[in-house]
Every structure is written in C-alpha cells, then in structure tokens.
Amino acid sequence: MKPSIWSSIGLLLILLPTAISHDYSDALTKSILFFEGQRSGILPRDQRMTWRRNSALDDGKNLNADLVGGYYDAGDNIKFHFPMAFTTTMLAWSAIDFGSYMSPADLRDNLVALRWGTDYLLKTVSQLPNRIFVQVGEAQPDHQCWERPEDMDTPRTAYAVEAPKPASDLAGEMAAAFAAASIAFKRFDPGYSKVLLDNALKTFKYADSHRGSYTNNPEVKLAVCPFYCSVNGYEDELLWGAAWLRRATGEDSYIKYLVDNRQSFGADYNCLEFGWDNKFGGVNVIVAKEVFEKNVAAIAPYKDTAEKFMCSYFLETPGAHMSYTPGGLLYKPGGCQLQNTVALSFLLLTYANDLSKSSQKLNCGSLKIQPDSLRRLAKRQVDYILGDNPMKMSYMIGYGDRYPRQIHHRGASSPSITVHPTAIKCSQGWKNFASPNPDPNILVGAVIGGPDTNDKFIGGRTNASETEPTTYINAPFVGLLAYFKANPVSYDSAFLRFAKRK
C-alpha cells in the first residue's frame, strides 16, 4: 500500500483468523421471536413469549379511534409510529430480499411479525385523507414509572396530525412500509397485498401534499421529542416512499419523482447514513437496484452515490469513511451503537448481492472490490454481535452462553403475571429496576444497544444506551441472519483490528 493513500493518522485494516463459529439458524429464529415480546394489544393464542399478556386495550379512546395493537418500540410502553413504520419496512425488506433463504417456519414467523406491524399501521391511516395518527402514550409520565405493559396506569393519550398540517416524514415512512409489505405478501395473500398498496398510495399522497416534518406541529412535538424527533428532515422519507412505490408498482411516475427531486431533496447530502431517521443511504441503494436490473439511466446518479457510500466502508479507498471500533465494529456516533451497525450492514449485504447479480465489482477510484468483500464485512458485524468481540459476549439476548442478564426493559425485568398476578404500580416497579438479580423473563432474540466505541460494555438496567433493545435493530438483523444461515461466506478474516500507521 502506498503511503500516499493514507494520512499520517490513517487506519490500517488488519485481518486475523476467525475464532468463533455461529449458529445463524438459531439466531434467526430468535431474532424473529423477539417481536412477540414487544407486542401490544390482544395477544394471539399461539403467543410463544408466554410471560407477556394483553395490554393497552383502550389505546385511541381519547380520539374515538381503535389504536389497539402494534409494537412497543423499546424497553418502555410508548408506541412511537415513526420508528414502528421503519421497523415494518425493514421486516418487509428482509422478507423480500432474504426470505428465500429462510426455512418455511422462519419465513412464516417473519410475515406474522410483519403483519402485526402492518395491521396496526393500517389503523393509523384509517382516517386519511384528513388525519394520521402519530403516537400513543405520554413519554414523560411513562418514563417516570417502571411498569410492565400489562399494568400500565399512565396516560395512553393518542396524538394525531390533521390536514393540512405536515407529516411528510411519518407518512412517507408509512407509505414505504405499506409498499414494501405489499411486495412481501403478494405471493402469499394477494388481497391483503392490494389493501397495503392502496394505503401506500393514499399515505404517500398525504406526505407529498402536506410537506414538512410531523414534529413541526407544536402539539405533536411536545409528545414526540426528544425521543423520535425527525432531526434529519422529511425529504429523505419522500424519496424513500417513492422508491418503494416504484418497486411495488413499476410505474414510471415514481422514476420521474425521484429524478425531479433528487438534488432539491438532498439525496447526495449526508448520504453515509441509514436508520429510523435518515433514509438517504437506503434510498440510494434501493434506487440503484433499478439501475442494476433495468438500466434506467435517468436515476444513475443514485447508483453513483450508493457506490460512494459502499466505498466508504473500506478504509483504503479515497474519500469519506465509516468508523470502526478497535475490535472491528462498524459504528456511527450516537447513543445506541448497534442500531447503526445493523442497518448499515443490511445495506452492505444488499448491495453486494446486486453487484453479483449484475456481474459487477465495486468501483472505488482505482480500486475494484469484489462483492464478497462487502459480504465478509457484513458478516463480520453479525459475528461481532453474536459474540466474536473483545468482551466475548453475545449482544443478542438468549443466544449463546454469555449474554447480558439485566436489560433496560420493563417487561423482562418485572415478574410475569403468572408469577405475580397482582398489579405492580408505578413506584413499586422501581424495586425491580434496582434489583441486582437477573431478569426474571428472557426477552429471547432481542439485540440490545451494545458496546461503546472502544468495545467496552458495562451493562446493567441503568445503562439504557447499552442494554435497551429496539425493534428497529432486530428488523434488518433478520435479513442478515437469513442470508448467512444459507450462504457460508468464505471467511479468512473474522476479526478486524485497526491500528495507526507508523
């Protein structure tokens, strides 16, 4: 390697032999099972997380609406619709691109988890074109209590945005979720698929007709922020919704929309990101698929940006780069590392498969990178999460022999109703929070926040950034695990170490 490629404080990628093998099939099954632990509403008879019971059965009552169901997004008992919609989109994308690698049972359970999300989201747009529901529950009172969902006595206020007030980010993500899910269900339930697509169209119409962020509405902002404010703006969700509608319908009008709005919406700006708030990385990757598959020249700039994005994962390439911990974990600055790791790894794997299908390599200046190099890097992230890391700990609860036994999750840390049938009131629950004992209920399959940027993990219920699970970490992890369960990538490097060039 020529020194000119590196700055004096550049980072050198060193590949060392693998140390741990993993049961991706077991991890996949558990990653889907996790969603049963996050269910809200009336639980079905085949509920496998039996320490959970029915909860929040009056949601939506204050607005004369039925908002029973859906998912609690994390370790509290609020239903934030913005990250729930992103979770739903990613569960659908996992089924679309990686469902063929799942066993029939895992694919069925993935679709069940997906439908639990879409059935609820359909309720949130049931009063369009005039109203869209954005949240159920009041975060501040909820966070002052440590209650299992079955005992909640905090306010379950539902919040909505009324036309013509803006909600482009929320509605754009919901449109993406419906469109993606319509593709996932098309082969298995055509009638439901059509319902989803029809709702994608009307929800996108609201998003595009009433432009602006949903958190620009004062009454909603007070409820949502600082938890799920749309910090990144709303333009990425409009492109994201249009991209998924193009994939679901094949209509050229969405190509025109993507072309006409690419620059003004900033598809090249802050494009090395992907998660519940910033969709630009996902937009560029999914639109690039149209270029790979159909050679649509008008949207080639999206592929160019996606390629720049992919090159940033490799430190020997020119331009901006991703960041890695000393132990090789891909991260972005923020409170919860693994939400970024998993979402970014999903895009890495998706793009690698698109390259392979079109018999292409990744072009990074003078460097030509094979698709398998992208897959190895994505697999490295999966292995790190499952236990091949400096702490020698699985960050998936219930996987392997060593995983955190105290997580920031009200239901997992509180005795179940079968053990303690009497309600545990708000202040009483803090005894469970402070208990030095392991969680009485194992939230099997939950991927928690993970270590810090130095690979250190302290753990404990008080350390929410490290030990709180979220649905939007698990949803893209489903697709990653499905692929590597069925495709054992030739792996001559399972541990990444980054050292300063001398």
UniProtKB/TrEMBL annotation:
Q: Does the keyword Cell wall biogenesis/degradation apply?
A: yes
Query: What SUPFAM superfamilies does this protein's entry cite?
Result: Six-hairpin glycosidases
Write out the catalytic residues in the record: 408
Limits of the Glycoside hydrolase family domain = 24-481
What Pfam family is a match, any one?
Glyco_hydro_9
Q: Which reaction does it catalyse?
A: Endohydrolysis of (1->4)-beta-D-glucosidic linkages in cellulose, lichenin and cereal beta-D-glucans
Q: Which Gene3D superfamilies match?
A: 1.50.10.10
Q: What's its EC?
A: 3.2.1.4
Q: Name one GO biological process term.
A: cell wall organization
**What is the annotated signal peptide range for this record?**
1-21
Keywords (alphabetical) are: Carbohydrate metabolism, Cell wall biogenesis/degradation, Cellulose degradation, Glycosidase, Hydrolase, Polysaccharide degradation, Signal
Looking up InterPro entries in the UniProt record yields: 6-hairpin_glycosidase_sf, 6hp_glycosidase-like_sf, Glyco_hydro_9, Glyco_hydro_9_His_AS
Single GO molecular function: cellulase activity
What protein family does this chain belong to?
Belongs to the glycosyl hydrolase 9 (cellulase E) family.
Would you tell me the protein name for this molecule? Answer: Endoglucanase
What species was this sequence derived from?
Answer: Cardamine amara subsp. amara
